[in-house]
Amino acid sequence: MDQTADILLTQGKLLPVMEEFYTLQGEGFNTGQAAYFIRIGGCDVGCSWCDIKESWNAQVYPPVETDAVIERASIFAAKAVVITGGEPLNYNLEYIIGRLRDLGIRVFIETSGSQPLSGNPHWICLSPKKNSPPLEEICVKADELKVIIQDETDLGWAEENMQKVRGSCHLYLQPEWSHRNIIMPLIISYIKEHPRWKISLQSHKYMRIP
């Protein structure tokens, strides 16, 4: 990458976008709402159960012009964009979020919280990972805490992170997809005993949509 491209990437005017698509949000608080998804390549968290491992290596996805991505996102009826990854906060999101907001588009980001926040999204979905814990600055701004549950020990991790977020933050436990049939009864039982939590399902997979 040449020096000019490096500068534009640093400014967020280029981003290594893996894919873009218009669909329904499948998880968490905003389940069922239409949105344009922008998936940015590159992740330094590396969860063993990640179902989008192909997003990890940003080098596979040459940076594209952010303005072109914004233009594509703006044509859809739902004025909502979800920026996800990978780990989107590995990049400067100030430019893309600011431009989208100027166009009257609501911006939602999905992050592990492992990197500093850039930009001013309307909604932050924090999905913390044990091998790269979230920063306090993300925890205190999160609108939604979504913890992936693979086994019983993850419930303790969920409670630990609940102590770090605001009282108004929405709390979700989500079964890890490949263990969903095994772990679902545990999550249901736990929420019945700890009703501040809700369950989040990957409904897009049940609906067979992106």
Descriptive notes:
With 210 residues, the chain is an alpha/beta fold. It has one domain: Aldolase class I (TIM Barrel, Alpha-Beta Barrel). 29% of the residues lie in helices and 23% in strands. It has seven helices and ten strands. The chain has helices at residues 3-11, 66-74, 94-102, 136-139, 153-162, 180-193, 203-207; strands spanning 14-15, 17-24, 34-40, 64-65, 80-84, 106-111, 123-126, 144-149, 170-175, 198-199. The strands form two sheets. It has an eight-stranded mixed sheet with strand order 2-3-5-6-7-8-9-10. Strands 1-4 form a two-stranded antiparallel ribbon. Helix 5 (153-162) links the parallel strand 8 and strand 9 (170-175). Helix 2 runs parallel beside helix 3. The longest helix is centred in the C-terminal third of the chain and has 14 residues, at 180-193. The radius of gyration is 17 Å and the shape is globular. The model has no long low-confidence stretch (mean pLDDT 94).
Write the layout of secondary structure elements.
Layout: H1 3-11, E1 14-15, E2 17-24, E3 34-40, E4 64-65, H2 66-74, E5 80-84, H3 94-102, E6 106-111, E7 123-126, H4 136-139, E8 144-149, H5 153-162, E9 170-175, H6 180-193, E10 198-199, H7 203-207
Parallel strand pairs: 3-5, 5-6, 6-7, 7-8, 8-9, 9-10
Antiparallel strand pairs: 1-4, 2-3
Helix pairs in contact: 2-3
